[in-house]
Amino acid sequence: MECNKPVEINIPDPLPDFNADSNIGTWKQLFAENIGKRAKIEISLFDGTLRGITGEIYIVGNTYVGVTCNGNVCLCDIYSVKFVTFF
Description:
Blueprint: H1 27-33, E1 38-44, E2 50-60, E3 64-69, E4 72-77, E5 81-86
Antiparallel strand pairs: 1-2, 1-5, 2-3, 3-4
């Protein structure tokens, strides 16, 4: 499956500093250091099942991570991330 960056998305400014002491070793820092890389992010849903999202890491916020695929951006709650596989 070929993934492309979305044409346009409004991103809040400024983005957090993920190298601050409070973010060292967190999912946020890991994702921020790997923006643009392909990954499969598995998140836990409310019913206890896991759902995988595969694409390029596009944006990272304080409470979310965005992945692009086929011109779309999928955002997920960073606190529901359980597993990540980088390609």
